[in-house]
Amino acid sequence: MIAWLRQHRRALAGAIARLAKASGLASAIVIGVALSLPAGGYALLENLRGLAGRLTLEPRLSVFLRPEAKRAETEALGAALRADARIAAARFVPREEALRELKATEGIAEVVAALERNPLPDAFVVSAKDQGAAALDALAADLRRLPAVVHVQADADWARRLAALAGIARLALAFLAALLGFALIAVTFNTIRLQILTRREEIEVSRLIGATDAFIRRPFYYLGLLQGLAGGGVALAIVATGLALLNGEVRVLAESYGSAFRLAFLGPVDAVAVVLLSGLLGWLGAFLSVSRHLR
Amino acid sequence: MVSFSAVAKRYPGGEEALREVSFSIAAGELAFVTGRSGAGKSTLLKLIPAIERPSAGSVLVNGQNVGALKRTAIPYLRRNLGLVFQDQKLLYDRSVYENVMLPLAFSDHGPREAARRARAALDKVGLLGREKANPIQLSGGEQQRLAIARAVVNRPSLLVADEPTANLDAESAARILEIFVAFNQVGVTVLIATHDQSLVERYGERVLRLADGRLASGATPA
Ligand SMILES: Nc1ncnc2c1ncn2[C@@H]1O[C@H](COP(=O)(O)OP(=O)(O)O)[C@@H](O)[C@H]1O
Ligand SMILES: [Mg+2]
To answer: Using CB atoms within 10 A as the burial measure, which of A184, A221, A239, B158 is most buried?
Structure first.
């Protein structure tokens, strides 16, 4: 057991020494640069998702009444809305209040003040219990059929479109990650092949004097693993630097909207996953190379 | 210790390098394998650590049929043998010390014991003090002695050397032979292949003479 540990420690130390050499570091950097693309894209998408999530926390439907709707019709509609089991809350927004809100909005106040009469209709702002896209669509369609209703606007529409776009981006990112993961394997495969070539004599002699296959292969597995782990670390460093640079610009933009929004780094679980996955792929590249090039 | 019975070896696409070779060497013997170039000396030696496998017959080493050994068992056979190769197979990008340490890397000794053994082996061949040198800086005789140090560092009970005095002057050759004799005197079984007849006459207790792959004499101790 002690001997076994010693053998592994020795192989690991040898692999670290080899990684520390210029060629090993260069490979780790190449891997890091390649991986920083999907990792950075993923970080941006997660930020986008966080942003969209905050904006659509409460998907609401605005139900506008016909301008000529009678007070009784309005009250009947209110009662119908409150009676609907799918609706969590329905708030009546009289046209006067809507106009006041509009007047309070910067940049529009003057335009509104110039109006001769209030162009806005009465409305109900409805929040649904089930906030799923399909449920909201169904509810909006039903509300549209009610008497006195002229228009139903789903405020979550744009968020849903954003989510769809993000879905496409996520798919593209997954494809990119798979492609670059494959490149990582290929880079490691080649590094290990060169290592095996430069150490050919040592391998031959070691075999002749009693080294097991496991002993001969072990340092190469470690080298592949370490190179992958180091590459993953480099990728994280690149993403962190890139986000910090972007945040300089984002801050200016966000503050102009009165927001404190910043691009966040990958969460700890995601960051560790990037490094571990990279290490795993490095090990796989080494395994394939050793299987191919060591008899 | 070593026992060949009716051993034949035919290389793929070649003639038979060994035919009907039978002999045995007891523990503690110092034996020579002689014969002209191409007689089959190297082939015979390579059968012992299972570098080559016999085409027919059986090769027993310490009672183990090494010709039928599983691939995964071969490293453990070789660790218990001291092998000196015809071309030495030293690593010229490593120091003398690292060359001797090589077999200790996969034996189960701790670092302190390994260092002790490496120094002891270098001491026995007269290379203590040259640890940091590169093998290229050594003379032919010193390189050969380094190869012997590497072979004995794990304290094998059987030492097998292929042409250890080839390309050496008489004095260096004698010094190499003295080292083998010294190991033999402390109980190590030694088997040396050489085409140098004068060495055999000076040191040969037991001589196996090969001619065209057949054992011409020496099958049993004289
Ligand atoms: N790897 C090999 N492949 C084919 N033929 C070989 C090989 N090794 C040796 N031989 C042949 O086997 C015969 C014996 O060779 P060897 O054992 O090297 O003789 P020695 O060591 O006595 O000079 C020679 O004819 C040689 O050409
Ligand atoms: Mg020979």
So the answer is: A184
